[in-house]
Amino acid sequence: MSQQCDIGLIGLAVMGENLALNIESRGFSIAVFNRTTEKVDDLIAGRAKGKKFVGCHSLEELVGSLKSPRKIMMMVKAGKPVDELIDSLLPLLSKGDILIDGGNSFFADTERRTKYVEEKGLLYSGTGVSGGEEGALLGPSMMPGGSEPAWPHLKPIFQAISAKVGPHNDIPCCEWVGPRGAGHYVKMVHNGIEYGDMQLICEAYFLMKEALGLSNNELYEVFSKWNRGELDSYLIEITRDIFSVRDDQGDGYLVDKVVDRAGAKGTGKWMSQHALDLGVPSTLVTEAVFARSLSDVKEARVRASKTLKGPSSKYSGDRQAFIEQIRHALYASKICSYAQGFVQLQAAAKELQWPLNLGNCALLWRGGCIIRAVFLDRIKEAFDADPNLENLLLAPYFTAAVDKAQDAWRHVVSSAALLGLPTPAFSAALAYYDGYRRDRLPANLLQSQRDYFGAHTFERIDKPGVFHADWLRLRKAPQA
């Protein structure tokens, strides 16, 4: 087959198919392949009919249909399938061709694959793609990383198909992130923050439903109002809409018929695990992951509910005032969640020697992705003003915002505890804020314990050096 297509794509599940249609709609020709070739035929005869598509029934046919340097986007399941596909493609490709992994791969795998593919004389890009089915079709957020010489070849396509923001809707939510696994790492942190955002919203909902008894109509109005202010975001918007959906298989609202068991694909867990490896306190995403784990033991919770007792969950104070306090608590907690995410990005960039531009990362998430929000403009402004900003909480806007919200935030967290309603993400965010703002924590006692039983040594506040004490010998009875 003569070389004719601008790019190839392998993997025609929902994301792959919609991304292919997006690419073609921006003026590019595309060759597609799927292991189950019936999917190729169905696409060519259906949604792609009459468009600049070439349907391929083999990898050889796909490779032969592409312009040089060949650009092939792999939209397959993360893990072993990516490695197997790479090994199948390498013998068919030439020096300078580009392989792109657009799936949710673990960043360490992308680090390894980039090195492996580059050693074969080819280029590799691990590209995070966010936005779900709708974003893939209409404009996702894209986070490309990997072999930097690949970027000039990918940029015209990726920036054309990505979401756009700005006063003139002309700033693409796609920019080069960094080498090797940087793109997939930024996507992983995006997904971790997404876990946190969703858990925070669910806690706000649970407080209003259980403590205040708000109806779905009332919840719709609350979230509609919130979406017109500083909480304006995609997740608040879709939450609002969920409360308006009636059950088409019975009476009432659909959300009330959904089992309270949340699934997960693992990217939030990856962020939490690597936070532990780096030694950074990404506590909110970790609590969000554990909240999903607790939801998964539904049968055990039902059994426990018949035995374990707690206080009434009804709030007796001013209803409207408490709703406003919940809004403040949600915003302050959200700020802490993003602050933790960007601290982890900074730590990973240092550890892995990636020259990340944190302001650009915020811009990448401004449109197309699940965590898109007006709020991200403020983060971009903060890092533009100070590229070395140590923590978002120290940026003047966010310092003032949290200070304004904290009385309400503390009231909500304490009220939830007294009412017996779990708010692990709200509570983790507040604990992080209170820990970060203190110049002294009880870790002096913890390190003393470690030195006592394990001779792990300690530093002193009054002189330099590393010390060990014979705590047993030095101990004496307390003074009366």
From TrEMBL:
InterPro entries referenced in this protein's UniProt entry, alphabetically: 6-PGluconate_DH-like_C_sf (IPR008927), 6PGD_dom2 (IPR013328), 6PGDH_C (IPR006114), 6PGDH_Gnd/GntZ (IPR006113), 6PGDH_NADP-bd (IPR006115), NAD(P)-bd_dom_sf (IPR036291), Pgluconate_DH (IPR006183)
Superkingdom, taxonomy of origin: Bacteria
Active site feature: 187, 194
Domain 6-phosphogluconate dehydrogenase C-terminal as annotated: residue spans: 183-472
Keywords: Gluconate utilization, NADP, Oxidoreductase, Pentose shunt
Residues annotated to bind NADP(+): 11-16, 34-36, 76-78, 104
Keyword Transmembrane: no
The protein's Enzyme Commission number: 1.1.1.44
Binding site for substrate: 104, 130-132, 190-191, 195, 265, 292, 450, 456
Assembly, per entry: Homodimer.
Name of the protein: 6-phosphogluconate dehydrogenase, decarboxylating
Native species: Lacipirellula limnantheis
Gene name, Swiss-Prot/TrEMBL: gndA_2
